[in-house]
């Protein structure tokens, strides 16, 4: 496919970044906030008034059709349904105005200047974006690691005179009274988290988005991952909104739609400890304005730099070429909602994965990410620098976007990184230690062993979130390394089967695509770790460090999945509900950890546990049974057991599971 | 048949002004084409092939056997009519045939150079004459030739004649000819004089396994006339041009029966002498033939009043290898299973030769009036056309040109003779752009043609202009309307001018439902522009469209695209790629494979997806029954 080349790491030229804050530090913020803002526009059309947009939506054929249908089915008067639609739209719609954006630009840059050393934006990406917004409706798809993401995006676009985006935001933001309205005025529109069966809501929502895309009113921005990734690992993409924004193209209403993946990499994430707690089951604080003010403490700390990379715009048209037969949409009136056909769904799914991959590829990795990866495997300080330099070579070999200041001696880079993350690590006795939270805070240490364990886990998970930023670089070779290790023979076919099994098993955990095997082979052959012939895959002696590093990286996940399997086989009761699942697995894991039967406190992460469950559901080892109010889980113990054994390398992969997949 | 003559004279005495109207109309539409040297009434000659009519070459009709004596062998239309840039850089059309002939068009060269980035100095002229050695010697089936000679039918193996019948008017066909390149051509050309002659020829072809390719007006734009290169048999081109008589006119039932080879302008002229017309006016009507219309499902500009060819057709005779197919009566409609006419309509010469056709006629309308409306943008224009269609009050013709074509039309405006006129023009422009605030970059124009009684026309005009006003349309005068229709007839000549200066162009059409008109126009135009750019075309391509026909449920869209091919190593290849992409875009957006040009060989790759596999199978089984030996082997459609 034509657009494949866009993703090829070999072709990528790393663009130059410009620090957006540099100018802000030397010139007046007020002048900046009141600067003359003249963005380029789609086909030179002036932006559309929000009231006009609303009336376009409410009077669209699409909405009228659904209103009629709903009215017929429910017996409600059409006027009442229409009113309901109007109310939904009112609740949803943005009210983008320049004033609030200027306000945010002013206040946020002030904050940014104290929080961050720099905000680096790739200039070429901005130029590409400038070009493409004039030609096609644009959809901006940033990665989502922090609340800051979308405000940051808007501020950047404002700064560089690009059209302000309209952003799909979760309804929870609206809870913050003043801020919610402020966000609305800076371009956010709010959607309910779940509205599965509500036809009317869906119709209003999709028509609202489509109207904006169709008319190229403003760049549409949303998060493919659907929510902030608490683990800093890309989440598997959600397809709903992507489906909607592609529809105007598929139905011939626009010539093309440009999708622009944006990678936002934080050197240190504001929410780092918050996420870790959340993953361990301490519920996240509800978003509230006052909560945000309480978070002022964070303002005094140093959060390093942000890198924002605007990726190569991807044309939906070129992606669809030869994949989707658009004439299928010509056989019925376009305003009648219809479920996309299977091939369209699989197309949208592939596109979504590609885009997430594109986001990952352009994530800027900081030295600390490498250090965190090493630290989690346990490392002494003097070794650390040496190992980091080794890993730097490997990471570059694998084509990652590493931002390592080459002008400084490595030891200095390492100590700089460690000092930025004083909250996580401490150097003592020539070793680097993960800091226990309890020890960091003053006061008495935690009482029970369980609490101690959780404190360690918070630190480990925080640290892991940095390692996770590099996972996309390592995951394919790591899968292969593990497959080579655990396959029953060195036959290529055998290795491939084991690889496929692992890939399939971990498909909810990592962003994986078909064709990974070949890529992983190439990477490991290039780095000298493997030798691959037509028939055989052989591990090289000099590749041992690489292979064992990679396997160690994947090990916590494999162990975690085994723990989940074991729980389901050994402890789970008949009527286990979906809600009980996570706490129950957590208790089980805590027990194992305390007994010393499990090394990785990472396994306590609810993200991992949920992903494992999703995988088992997908594979059919566990079924959801709708029992009245509660959804219970029905476990096929035989299958789960054999999956666990295969994960642990006890069974050859071919026989047991793949046969059933 | 003898009574035809008296019919004609009596009718013309009853309605004397009809004849005047007819003549006036003909002047307007087609101009005087080779003024008939005699009275040229309806001839009721018997079939006299045996005599090898000496008079046939100097027949009073438009098309002689040796077409190249009158028409270009490697371009469009008459030898005497040609656009050129004169020494002052002004554009002229030579000859006397058209309204534009002899006038100076001052804006054309500017438009041409700025639109295409072309230069008047850079020329890419055609090979002036055909090199006979470039044509392969004919491969003749001796037995067939013997039989043919014994019938006394006129035929030839002259290279010029054979080359003339080896092509239609697709760009790639004309481009090759201009370079003097000739591919597979028919091995001989035969001119039947009547139905019975055709029966004889088809019999002989079946007997000796000779491939027959019917040839009517030669205006095909679907590669339908290209000889299949894989054809190993001798190919005979069956030129129907000498079968050009109106055999009778039935005033009681308002029908006329004519031989299929008669070309549009002759049919209208001859019927006009009796005060009638068919009202079927495809843009190619100067050259295309009655039989060709039936064989391709043609559509005429004024179909809103008269209908398309399938609506006009009352009876048709076709000679097939299995014999003659025809209905036993001349009735307006019948329920006798699937209509066999619909096997013939659109058969594109794959089943047999259409020899005689009975077609509906109408009295020539009393009054004809052109008109035009300018719209602030294309979207408004389409909305207006849709409304006119909804109210079913479309005039005889209503066409909407987009902004690019509007400008193109402007470029063709002849020099204004008086200062007053140019002042008026300026005033008009000022009013539209400054007072009404129309953006010259978005403005577009609809051209109208009203027909009927004087009163009805006025009333009709009022209604249509009323609707137009609701969509921001401003009446823009008769002249602009007239010019618009003029453009249709000369545009093909203009392509030859472009080709003299490294610009190649083509047109194609489709039909779409109303709700997709704008989408198809936008997407196809953009696709063309992009594909050209991607293929290395240096200067932005021109891609423009107009809505030419409206129906209850949709419209016909006509696209033009043209680009400057300097610097391209294989311009035809690029061109074909772009055309292919444009068609795919049309299909992807819900347009049809063709509204009236037909499928031929150019578009046959898409026929299966268009009519489904079973549908194609149905067509194939008809072909297998009617022509199992593939005597009619032009390989169109299937």
Describe the structure.
The complex is a heterodimer of chains A (661) and B (638). Chain A is of the alpha/beta class and 661 residues long. Chain A has two domains: 4-361, no CATH class; 472-660, no CATH class. Chain A is built from 28 helices and 15 strands. In chain A, the strands form four sheets. In chain A, strands 1, 2, 3, 4, 5, 6, 7, 8 and 9 form a nine-stranded mixed β-sheet that branches. A two-stranded antiparallel ribbon of chain A has the order 10-11. In chain A, helix 5 crosses helix 10 and helix 24 (544-570) crosses helix 26. The radius of gyration of chain A is 25 Å and the shape is globular. The relative contact order of chain A is 0.08. Residues 1-12, 437-443 and 655-661 of chain A have low confidence and may be disordered. Chain B is of the alpha+beta class. Chain B is built from 20 helices and 21 strands. In chain B, the strands form five sheets. Chain B has a seven-stranded antiparallel β-sheet with strand order 18-15-17-16-20-21-19, sandwiched between helices. Chain B is globular. The A-B interface holds A 252-253, 255, 325-327, 329-330, 333-334 and B 515-516, 519-520, 522-523, 526-527, 587-590, 609.
Strand content of chain A: 5-15%
On the 0-100 scale, what is the average pLDDT of chain A?
A: 86
Number of continuous helical runs of chain A? 28
Proportion of residues in β-strands of chain B? 15-25%
- Contiguous low-pLDDT stretches of chain B (5 residues minimum) are 1-16, 30-46, 48-59
Shape of chain B: globular
Helicity of chain B, in percent? 25-40%
Count of helix runs of chain B: 20
Describe the largest sheet of chain B: 7 strands, antiparallel
Structural class of chain B: alpha+beta
Identify the quaternary structure here.
heterodimer
Gyration radius over CA of chain B? 24 Å
GO cellular component, one term (chain A): mitochondrial membrane
GO biological process, one term (chain A): phospholipid biosynthetic process
Protein name (chain A): Phospholipid/glycerol acyltransferase domain-containing protein
Subcellular location (chain A): Membrane
């Amino acid at each position: 496919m034509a657009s494949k080349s866009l993703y090829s790491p070999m072709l990528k030229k790393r663009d130059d970044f410009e620090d957006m804050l540099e100018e802000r530090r030397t010139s007046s913020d007020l002048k900046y906030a009141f600067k003359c803002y003249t963005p380029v526009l789609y086909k030179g059309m002036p932006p559309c008034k929000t009231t006009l947009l609303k009336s376009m939506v409410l009077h669209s054929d699409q909405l009228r059709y659904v209103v009629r249908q709903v009215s017929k089915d429910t017996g409600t008067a059409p006027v009442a349904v229409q009113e309901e639609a109007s109310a939904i739209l009112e609740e949803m719609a943005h009210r983008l105005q320049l004033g609030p954006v200027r306000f945010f630009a002013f206040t946020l840059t002030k904050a940014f200047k104290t929080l961050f050393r720099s905000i680096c934006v790739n200039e070429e990406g901005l130029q590409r974006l400038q070009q493409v917004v004039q030609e096609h409706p644009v959809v901006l798809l940033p990665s989502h690691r922090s609340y800051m993401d979308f405000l940051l995006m808007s501020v950047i676009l404002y700064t560089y005179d690009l059209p302000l985006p309209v952003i799909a935001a979760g309804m929870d933001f609206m809870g913050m009274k003043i801020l919610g309205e402020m966000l609305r005025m800076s371009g956010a529109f709010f959607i309910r988290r779940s509205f599965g069966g509500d036809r009317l809501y869906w119709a209003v929502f999709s028509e609202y988005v489509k109207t904006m895309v169709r008319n190229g009113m403003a760049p549409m921005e949303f998060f493919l991952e659907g929510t902030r990734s608490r683990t800093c690992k890309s989440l598997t993409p959600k397809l709903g909104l992507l489906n909607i924004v592609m529809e105007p193209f598929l139905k011939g209403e626009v010539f093309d739609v440009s999708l622009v993946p944006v990678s936002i990499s934080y050197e240190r994430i504001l929410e780092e400890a918050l996420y870790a707690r959340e993953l361990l089951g301490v519920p996240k604080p509800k978003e509230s304005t006052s909560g945000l003010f309480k978070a002022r403490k964070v303002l005094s700390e140093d959060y390093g730099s942000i890198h924002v990379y605007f990726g190569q715009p991807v044309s939906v048209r070129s992606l669809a070429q030869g994949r989707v037969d658009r004439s299928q949409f010509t056989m019925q009136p376009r305003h009648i909602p219809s479920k996309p056909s299977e091939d369209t769904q699989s197309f949208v799914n592939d596109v979504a994965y590609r885009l997430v991959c594109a986001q990952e590829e352009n994530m800027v990795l900081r030295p600390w990410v490498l250090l965190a990866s090493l630290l989690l495997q346990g490392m002494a300080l003097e070794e650390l620098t040496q190992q980091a330099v080794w890993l730097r070579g490997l990471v570059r070999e694998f084509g990652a976007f590493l931002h390592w200041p080459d002008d400084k001696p490595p030891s200095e880079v390492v100590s700089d990184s460690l000092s930025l993350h004083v909250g996580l690590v401490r150097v003592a006795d020539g070793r680097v230690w993960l800091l226990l939270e309890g020890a960091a805070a003053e006061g008495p240490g935690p009482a029970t062993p369980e609490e101690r364990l959780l404190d360690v886990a918070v630190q480990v998970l925080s640290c892991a979130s940095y390692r996770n930023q590099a996972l996309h670089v390592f995951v394919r070779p790591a899968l292969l390394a593990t497959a080579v290790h655990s396959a029953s023979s060195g036959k290529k076919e055998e290795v491939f089967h084991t690889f496929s099994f692992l890939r399939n098993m971990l498909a909810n955990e990592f962003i994986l695509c078909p064709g990974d095997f070949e890529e992983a082979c190439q990477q490991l052959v290039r780095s000298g770790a493997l030798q691959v012939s037509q028939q055989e895959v052989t591990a090289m002696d000099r590749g041992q460090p690489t292979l064992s590093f990679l396997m160690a990286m994947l090990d916590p996940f494999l162990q975690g999945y085994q723990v989940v399997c074991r729980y389901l086989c050994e402890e789970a009761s008949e009527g286990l509900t979906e809600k009980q699942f996570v706490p129950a697995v957590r208790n089980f894991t805590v027990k194992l950890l305390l007994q010393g039967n499990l090394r990785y406190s990472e396994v306590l992460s609810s993200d991992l546990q949920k992903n494992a469950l999703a995988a088992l559901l997908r594979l059919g080892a566990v079924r959801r049974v709708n029992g009245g109010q509660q959804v219970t889980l029905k476990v096929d113990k035989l299958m789960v057991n054999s999956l666990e054994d295969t994960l642990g390398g006890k069974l050859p992969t071919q026989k047991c599971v793949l046969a059933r997949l | 048949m003898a009574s035809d003559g008296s019919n004609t004279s009596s009718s013309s005495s009853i309605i004397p002004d009809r004849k005047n109207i007819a003549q006036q109309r003909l002047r307007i539409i087609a101009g005087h084409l080779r003024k008939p040297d005699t009275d040229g009434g309806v001839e009721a000659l018997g079939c006299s092939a045996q005599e090898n009519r000496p008079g046939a070459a100097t027949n009073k009709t438009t098309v002689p056997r040796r077409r190249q004596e009158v028409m270009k062998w490697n371009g469009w239309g008459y030898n005497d009519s040609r656009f050129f840039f004169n020494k002052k850089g002004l554009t002229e059309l030579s000859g006397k045939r058209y309204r534009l002939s002899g006038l100076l068009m001052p804006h054309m060269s500017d438009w041409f150079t700025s639109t295409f980035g072309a230069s008047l100095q850079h020329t890419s002229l055609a090979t002036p004459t055909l090199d006979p050695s470039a044509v392969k010697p004919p491969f003749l089936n001796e037995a067939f030739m013997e039989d043919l000679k014994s019938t006394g039918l006129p035929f030839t193996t002259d290279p010029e004649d054979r080359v003339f019948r080896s092509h239609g008017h697709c760009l790639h066909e004309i481009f090759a000819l201009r370079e003097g390149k000739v591919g597979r051509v028919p091995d001989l050309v035969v001119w039947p004089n009547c139905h019975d002659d055709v029966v004889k020829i088809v019999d002989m072809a079946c007997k000796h396994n000779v491939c027959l390719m019917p040839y009517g007006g030669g205006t095909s734009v679907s590669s339908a006339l290209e000889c299949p290169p894989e054809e190993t048999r001798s190919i005979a081109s069956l030129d129907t041009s000498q079968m050009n008589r109106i055999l009778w006119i039935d005033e009681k039932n308002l029908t006329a029966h004519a031989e299929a080879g008669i070309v549009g302008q002759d049919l209208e002229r001859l019927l006009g002498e009796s005060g009638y017309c068919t009202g079927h006016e495809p843009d190619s009507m100067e050259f295309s033939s009655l039989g060709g219309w039936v064989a391709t499902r043609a559509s005429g500009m004024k179909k809103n009043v008269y209908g398309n060819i399938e609506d006009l057709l009352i009876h048709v005779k076709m000679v097939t290898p299995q014999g003659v197919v025809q209905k036993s009566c001349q009735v307006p409609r019948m329920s006798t299973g699937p209509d066999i006419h619909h096997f013939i309509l659109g058969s594109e010469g794959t089943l047999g030769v259409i020899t005689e056709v009975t077609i509906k006629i109408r009295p020539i309308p009393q009054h004809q009036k052109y008109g035009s409306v300018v719209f602030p943008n294309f979207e408004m224009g389409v909305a207006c056309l849709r409304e006119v269609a909804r109210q079913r009050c479309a005039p005889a013709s209503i066409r909407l040109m987009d902004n690019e074509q509007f400008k193109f039309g402007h470029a063709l405006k002849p020099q204004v003779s008086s200062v007053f006129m140019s002042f008026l023009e300026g005033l008009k422009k000022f009013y539209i752009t400054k007072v009404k605030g129309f953006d010259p970059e978005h403005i577009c124009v609809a051209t109208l043609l009203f027909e009927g009684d004087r009163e009805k026309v006025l009333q009709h005009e009022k209604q249509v202009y009323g609707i137009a006003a609701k969509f921001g349309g401003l009446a823009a005068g008769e002249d602009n309307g007239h010019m618009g229709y003029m453009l249709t007839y000369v545009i093909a000549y203009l392509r030859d001018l472009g080709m003299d200066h490294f610009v190649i162009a083509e047109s194609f059409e489709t039909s779409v439902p109303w709700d997709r008109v704008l989408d198809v126009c936008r997407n196809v135009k953009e696709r063309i522009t992009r594909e050209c750019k991607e293929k290395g075309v240096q200067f932005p391509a021109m891609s423009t469209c107009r809505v030419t026909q409206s129906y209850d449920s949709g419209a016909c869209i006509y696209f033009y695209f043209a680009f400057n091919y300097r610097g391209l190593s294989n311009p035809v290849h690029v061109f074909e790629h772009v055309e292919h992409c444009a068609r795919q875009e049309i299909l992807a957006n819900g347009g049809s494979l063709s509204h009236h040009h037909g499928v031929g060989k150019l578009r046959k790759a898409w026929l299966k997806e268009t009519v489904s596999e079973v549908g194609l199978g149905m067509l194939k089984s008809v072909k297998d029954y009617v022509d199992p030996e593939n005597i009619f082997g032009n390989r169109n459609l299937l």
